Fold this sequence. Notes:
Chain A is of the alpha+beta class. Chain A has helices at 5-10, 14-43, 50-56, 139-147, 153-156; strands at 44-48, 64-70, 76-78, 81-87, 92-98, 110-117, 123-129. In chain B, helix 7 (170-184) runs antiparallel to helix 8 and helix 14 packs antiparallel against helix 15 (321-334).
Amino acid sequence: MTMPAAVRKKGWSRKQKRLAIIAGLGVVLALATTLVLVALRDQIVFFYSPSEIVSRQVPVGQAIRLGGIVKEDSWVRTGETNDFVVTDGARDVPARFIGILPDLFSEGQGVVAEGSMGVDGLFTASNVLAKHDENYMPKEVVNALKASGEWRPEDAQ
Amino acid sequence: MLFWSIAIAVTAIACAAIYYAAAGRSAIATPAVPEDNTGDFRVVLAGIDADLASGKLGEAEATAAKAELAREVIRLKADSAKAKPSNGELGQGALFAGLGGVAVLSLGVYFFLGQPNMPSLPLAERSEVAAQSINLDDAIARIEQQLAANPDDLRGWTVIAPAYRELGRYADAAHAFQRIIELGGATPDLQTNEAEALLLAADGAGSPAAMDLLRAAAESDPTHVLSRLYLAAELTRTGKYPEAIAAWEAAIKLSNGNEPWLSAAQSGLQAAQNDGVVPNAVDDEMIQQMVTGLAKRLSASGGTIEEWTQLVRAYLVLGDRERAQAAVYDALAAYPLTFDRGDLDAVALGAGLDLDGAKP
Amino acid sequence: MSIELGHFALILAFAIATISTIGGYAFWRSGNRIALVLSQGAILQFILVAVAFAALIQAFVTSDFSLLLAVNNSHSLKPLIFKISGVWGNHEGSMVLWITILVAFGAMVAAFGRRLPSDLLTLVLATQSLLTAAFAGFTLFTSNPFARVFPAPLEGKDLNPILQDIGLAIHPPLLYAGYVGFSICFSFAIAALISGRIDQAWARWVRPWTMLSWTFLTLGIAMGSYWAYYELGWGGWWFWDPVENASFMPWLAGTALLHSALVMEKRNALKIWTVFLSIITFSLSLLGTFLVRSGILTSVHTFASDPTRGMVILSLLALVIGGAFFLFALRAASLRQGGLFAPVSREGALILNNLFLATAVGAVLVGTLYPLVLDALVGTTISVGAPFFNLTFGALMAPLLLVLPFGPMLAWKRADIVSAAQRLIGAAALAVFLAILISALGGVSISLAPIGLLLGFWVAFGAIAELVERSRLGRIPLGESMRRLIGLPRTAWSTAIAHFGIGVTVLGIVATTAWETELVTTLNPGESAELSGYTVKFDSFDQVPGPNYIADEGRFTIVAPGGSTRKTIADRRTYVASGIPTTEAAIETYGFSQVYLQLGEPLENTHVVRIWHKPYITLIWLGTILMALAGVLSLTDRKQRIGAPRRAARPVAEPAE
């Protein structure tokens, strides 16, 4: 709320005051809208199933979310490094996560991992999401599985 | 019928309360001061003066604000004078219609949604034994599943063995104790437990394997009492009196004079000496004395969980559920963790005693 | 029979609410009598719903498994406190809690509202009854908590260990009290729109309710955040998760409402905006409660989602919110605007505050709903994560924090910005000095940290500067200024404490974000690791049985840089009954900082341990507690109280003036 001193001292007419306020509001709103739009363009994260990763040629290094089911017998732990395979029944994507996986992470369960694809086709996860409920299947995963015909409702509940 | 009487009474009371409020006779809603809220404006006025005094408002601005406030009050007064009640006071007819609506709506909706004849069923008031034994069954089924997947789980066997015994599945109990011994090594206690289970499974027919186990237990620990007692009792039962006398005496020698089993052992010894004829049978009175002694000692100086369990069992044998329950609570207080409590939980649950709220 | 009586009580309350709504809107002009009837009705609704709620609690406590809700959400072996909290740890029960709080606020208006004009009181209570009728009806007809089972099972199903937490026992009631409290503001706004009377008195009546709800909401959010921090075991305290956003939006809007209602009460300006905000805030509260629950958005916090009833919920929301905005559109033009002021003035600063807060609400709303809209329109699944919110929210809050300390310094109507700036020079200098000093000492790991620190210190010192200024500290004898300080109105203290709390929270956020260190490593018993000067020694690992779980328990010794040692335990519990694993992180507090230890699942006798050092993280919650404290302080101010200032001194029957 800074304005030129000369203007301030003179005192403003009613109309000028109202105009100044409306103009101020407009400027802030316009800036905010721009900010939101720019952020939306740059900061959103797309969600892919393993099939989509293969078919869409997701660029290496782009932040994405990968969702599917942890393939049976694919989880290998070496020290703090976890390697596992995310599958949607049709395609598999190998993934690696360094750290401690959530309690509810297990083979045959749905998973959503944030991270990016590497040149070698390995998905490096920076974060693996879990949920309170042991019956939980992320909605995105359900949709992806439905799309690939792997969805069996009795698995979810 | 009772429910509907109460429901109708509650509805009637609620309607009456509203009716009396409408008559201005409610304690809660005294007549408001409807068209005069200049009090609030006075507070605003005082606020202007305070702001003026603290320099938060300029002189000219304060005067303008006061003028504005005055206009607001005048406008309000004019408005309220203008907008006299347009649709009259709330009439008796409308009031009764509303109250009738409340009654019809509430009773009607309940008629469709409610189950007036269904009683409450708090767990405490239900046939407890059924509830609890099913509980135990569930627990055992779960552990059995785990053991099927992992037969080398020592902890699983340790938990399940006494539970089997309490459920009367003596053969399973004996097998479970056998597994514990295989996995964790033999101790006199485990051997005795297995022998006990085998003997119970044999149902009075005796068991050579049990005798071997009891002998092994007695040999490995020269101070082990329970194995000797069982040994003596079995020998007495099978009529091997000289050996039985020796075993009874060996056990009695290990006592320090105030063990609860002492009197039983002495009468066993007498029976063996008397060629199997019990001179004066161990009657309830004697047990009673024994139990009283144990209870006194436990309440005074505490004891092991086995002793507590024994006390609970004894009360149950005597048919004194109240004391048994009290003993369970005392034991719970002394041993708050389930895993410390050994067979106590199984005994108590099996008998339908309460384990849940450890009230003093 | 108590369950069925509880059921009937809820239905009777629903009936009274329905008839009150109809009667209230039909007869609001007719004077005193309808107001009395509705007041009595509001109090009866409260008593009846409380009875229904008590009946549910009774059924849970006695493990009455003839109640479907208890079967699904309780277990006879749960500790008592979690049997009770189990009542609202699910959809149906939480609806009853929600309605209980709703009618409690309605009853409070009825009890304290004696001095309100009868037409306004009638309309407020009618609107409140409308909400009660709508949500009690929804509860009864689509998700009845009193549904029975026959034959009754012998044991309940639920022993979910994660929900058995003291944080989760008290957090929903607090949050709901916040959400639902804003219903009063909503009802007042609807009443103002219908009756056309909107003046400074109206703002005086609305403000305490706003303050009360805001205080509850602040505490509820802070507690939810701390719960997620220690219970989920990820070390994060805010995830920009839909549920968190849903509670945060009403908070932002409520904060804006607090400020705009102040302008309206003091200077008779911003009337329409305040009414609009009242509606928006409660609408966002409704969204917060129900959007997540409808199953449309998934979230880590969801514990009571029910997609099947989603459509009903959405229609109900559309009806309430849409109806309110329709009324607003219809009537807003006829409300009288008032109060003129210069752009540089207290009013101007508060408008700026409102502008930024409202825009922030918009940004958060867009981020939360955008994936939904995109999915519905294009079919692309995306997620809007923390980076979006950090960028937009941060960019909007920075200027707000920058101008915040000016606000209380400015005079109403027309202010002198230069003199305000002069009075803040001390605070600014101190903030700059400390920000530079700490950045230099701490090592700057992200480029925005010094700016964040600067803002945090600036806001905190700015809040103090206002107190210093008003007590004329340093310019008059110390004793005299102390007397002045104590004599300051509680509202002044409240403002200063709340703003100081914001500064403290900002500092905590910045410090944690910038200087948090983390180490994931393989660590076996006997080994130790070092992080930020703390040595963490892994003493032993054991499998330990708990009351109803088996724990993989790691015992650690932490040696602080100062040399003090502490023993702590991090464990992973597997609950026997359900087989659900949970992580219990070890959290040790050093001053304002914390060391947070998480133990991974053991694999062939190797253990992965994750260690965080979180500098000054407790400041985040400390700041929110200060804010809530400020809210309480403001509520105890005599002038803020509902009714006239001298009511307490005068008998009620006597005319006020």
